[in-house]
Write a structure and sequence with these properties.
Blueprint (H helix, E strand, L loop, with lengths): L9 H10 L5 H8 L5 H10 L6 H4 L8 H6 L27 E5 L2 E7 L27 H9 L5 E6 L7 H12 L6 E6 L1 H4 L6 H8 L4 E6 L8 H12 L4 E7 L7 H13 L2 E8 L13 H11 L10 E6 L4 E5 L4 E4 L3 E5 L5 E5 L2 H4 L9
Parallel strand pairs: 2-3, 3-4, 4-5, 5-6, 6-7, 7-8
Antiparallel strand pairs: 1-2, 8-9, 10-11, 11-12
Helix pairs in contact: 7-9
């Protein structure tokens, strides 16, 4: 084998398409050749970075389509109305740099300041893309915090995107966390499979396999994102023993449609990805134009529950502003509670009566309606 026939190192394989990403408004204008408010778009990129990798870029067909809306800066980003810079109040729950500790037994650990591509609806746009705000040299206090807090059994690696780190760095995080006795679960939250599928290499999967259980939650918003390359990346992770879940953001003009959402959830299952969360869009400053009515999310869940496999029905949640955490929402299937029974409505709208146990008939534990 001569030099030209040698396989590329894995780092070269995934960094090459990263270098081909669109990173300026001028690049977008030249590529699509359609009228754009380039001044307003440029203003938006000064607040939050622009980068679109080849995989999602090839899905953009025209202005305003689901992929254009997700990745192309919009003039609406400059018209902040009721959005908040830190809508989930993550910084208030950060006892040391790069750690958010909101729930009793788990922490969010920000390990990377960058993403392969930048989603315009990003909740963490105040930090993402800025190494000064997710510092790569302040991890020791974070590890020390996890070691000292023995109630922490679940650590979520996020960012930015943790899979933008080198294999060596990823192994360092996994190895260090796995050596902490009370850390039982490690999670990787990533959008890399749908933005830079080349990054999911056999070498990366071998590293992850050494530190199981490692759960991987991927972010997918539209069924067309599941291209051949993306499906292959998900298959590599599944074959490496990673339980896969999905995060999906409910976004106006992207997936606020029953048919689109049903197809997405069903296709995710075919990729061995269990739909996990459907998020109501956060009230992020600069991303208000993505928000839908809550009624739309409830409509979608009602159109999934019973009409397709229960495996394909995610938890619809609002991440409560001000640090309240994830609050689940679902359609109201309990129609009435009497002294003797509960009236239930099934997925098709038919009502049924469930008799209350004797304890409930004695007046104990009868649920309230309204």
């Amino acid at each position: 084998m001569d030099n030209n026939e040698r396989p590329l190192a894995s780092g070269v394989v995934w960094q090459a398409p990263l270098r081909e990403a669109v990173t300026t408004v001028d690049d977008l204008s030249r590529r699509f050749g359609v009228p754009m408010d380039t001044v307003a778009m440029q203003q938006a990129t000064e607040i939050f970075n622009l980068r679109i990798t080849p995989e999602p870029l090839q899905l953009v067909k025209e202005p305003g389509d689901p992929f254009w809306r997700q990745y192309v800066p919009a003039p609406e980003e400059n018209a902040v109305t009721d959005g908040m810079v830190d809508p989930l109040d993550e910084d208030a729950d950060s006892p040391v740099p790069n750690i958010t500790h909101r729930y009793p037994d788990r922490v969010l650990f920000l390990v990377s300041p960058v993403c392969a591509a930048y989603c315009r609806f990003c909740t963490r746009r105040r930090k993402v893309g800025d190494p000064d705000k997710i510092p790569l040299d302040q991890f020791l206090p974070a590890f020390d915090y996890i070691v000292r807090h023995t109630e922490i059994r679940d650590v979520i690696l996020s960012g930015g995107d943790p899979l933008m780190l080198s294999d060596r760095r990823i192994e360092h995080f996994l190895k260090t966390l796995r050596a902490i006795p009370h850390v039982e679960i490690i999670r990787l939250h990533t959008r890399i499979p749908s933005q830079l599928p080349e990054r999911v290499t056999p070498e990366l999967c071998e590293i992850i396999k050494r530190y199981h259980p490692v759960f991987v939650n991927v972010h997918v918003n539209h069924p067309d994102e599941l291209t051949v390359k993306v499906r292959h990346a998900l298959s590599l992770l599944a074959d490496a023993g990673c339980p896969l879940g999905s995060h999906t953001a409910l976004l106006k003009g992207v997936n606020d449609n029953v048919d689109v959402m049903k197809r997405l959830m069903q296709e995710l299952l075919k990729c061995r990805v269990r739909p996990y969360y459907l998020f109501q869009a956060d009230a992020v400053a600069g991303a208000e134009h993505f928000r839908t009515p809550v009624a739309k999310g409830l409509e979608i869940i009602e159109a999934l529950r019973g009409w397709t496999s229960g495996l394909a029905v995610p938890h619809y949640v609002i991440d409560a502003p001000g640090g309240g955490g994830k609050v689940p929402l679902q359609p109201d299937y309990v129609q009435d509670v009497t002294a003797t029974h509960i009236v239930l409505r099934n997925y098709a709208g038919t009502t049924y009566q469930y008799p209350l146990p004797l304890d409930d008939l004695a007046g104990e534990g009868i649920p309230k309606i309204g």
